[in-house]
Design brief:
This protein is α+β, with helices and mostly antiparallel strands. It has 12 helices and 5 strands.
């Protein structure tokens, strides 16, 4: 009978229900005679039929004992599974029906061992009757579930395919984000050089003209005062341009490496923010690959910016270290930490740090509590970029 349609399922359920009711009526009608003779022992045990052959008896006892113990173990396991997963697993009652059927089958084998020596055939028959009822109930209940189970499997397959598609999309977006960050670094380098070599040189030339005008004897006192004000503004502008150029891409990072650029940046951060920053850098800290140095420096910049803008902490601690295979940067503060609502989505800056580190095969961790926030970035010394989309985490 076709069960893939609701009508077919209903017809099967109706027919099976009628059969189950008829079987149950016959079984109940047999109960009085069964109860009266349940302990009857007027028959010969099976061992007599086996001619008391020890090997044959051992074969039957051993086989029935193993089957009985296994069936009981399976039924108990199913009951435990339903108890632990009754809210998650569908059709949990069906597992209980299977468990009842299985344990009833097990006890029929147990009675096969008993009747070898004690001819309690009526009791054995009663247990077989219980097994038969459990079998019919399970057989009646199972077929209507076939379309539902099929639909669940189909839905699970679609969900898995969508999950794989989402995973690939997330991986592609991670790589796109990493490439955007790399492009941003190159653009920062270009703008920094333009500011230093272009605008900076023009400002220097203007300052030289002001210096010459101020030293001229022909300038009046009023002109001298105006020129002096313009010179101070020009010097301030030159300093700001130079600082902006260095922040966009510190020349020390290319010329001397991370070990020199980090102390320079931390010192400037102390002066600008008023936050006391403790810095730990090993005395022997050699040059790293360009990608690793840029990534760690940008993490340092973003981390200290977050300390200044959001944490409210007056102290921060920076530790830079090298192990046998990785460079590790740790940033700690004693601020208020991230609010619970922001923990799942901490912001663009933190996401950018994570992408930089991940793209070089590293590990990024951030822990935040009311006592402060800790950021740890660990990047392999070789700093190989990830290229395989299939290996990207989600």
């Amino acid at each position: 009978m076709e069960l893939s349609t609701p009508a077919g399922t209903r017809r099967w359920a109706a027919g099976s229900a009628v059969a189950a009711v008829a079987f149950s009526v016959v079984a109940i009608a047999m109960v009085p005679a069964t109860v009266n003779r349940i302990w009857s022992s007027s028959f010969l045990p099976h061992a007599y039929c086996y001619l008391y052959d020890r090997k044959l008896i051992a074969l039957h006892i051993g086989s029935d004992a193993v089957i009985w113990i296994s069936y009981v173990a399976i039924a108990v396991t199913l009951a435990y599974l339903v108890r632990r997963t009754r809210r998650e697993i569908p059709f949990s009652w069906m597992f209980l029906a299977f468990g009842t059927f299985i344990i009833a089958c097990g006890f029929t084998h147990f009675m096969e061992m008993v009747v070898l020596w004690k001819p309690l055939y009526w009791l054995a028959g009663d247990i077989k009757l219980i097994t038969a009822v459990a079998s019919v109930v399970t057989a009646v209940a199972l077929p209507p579930l076939v379309p539902q189970v099929h639909e669940m499997i189909r839905a699970a397959t679609v969900s898995e395919q969508r999950g794989q598609l989402l995973e690939r999309t997330n991986a592609e977006m991670r790589h796109l984000s990493a490439r955007l960050l790399s492009t941003q670094d190159n653009e920062r380098r270009r703008i920094a050089r333009e500011l230093h070599d272009g605008v900076g040189q023009y400002l220097t030339a203007i300052k030289m003209s002001f210096d010459a005008a101020l030293s001229s004897d022909r300038a009046s006192a009023e002109s001298q005062a105006s020129l002096a004000d313009c010179q101070r503004l020009l010097e301030h502008c030159t300093t700001e341009i130079r600082t902006l150029s260095h922040l966009l891409h510190p020349p020390l990072l290319e010329e001397m490496g991370l070990a020199s650029a980090v102390p320079w940046y931390v010192q400037g951060f102390r002066e600008r923010s008023g936050i006391n920053v403790e810095l730990e850098v090993p005395s022997k800290f050699g040059r790293l690959s360009e990608d690793v140095e840029i990534a760690l420096f940008r993490v340092l910049q973003e981390g200290l910016t977050n300390v200044h803008r959001h944490s409210g902490s007056k102290v921060a601690r920076i530790r830079l270290e090298i192990t046998s295979n990785a460079a590790i940067l740790t940033i700690q503060d004693q601020g208020r930490g991230l609010p619970p609502a922001a923990a799942p989505n901490p912001g663009v800056g933190i996401a950018g740090m994570r992408e930089r580190v991940w793209e070089l095969g590293g590990e990024f961790k951030m822990t935040s509590a009311s006592s402060g926030t800790t950021i740890l970035a660990s990047i392999p010394l070789q700093g190989k970029r990830r290229e395989q989309v299939s290996g990207a985490p989600v």
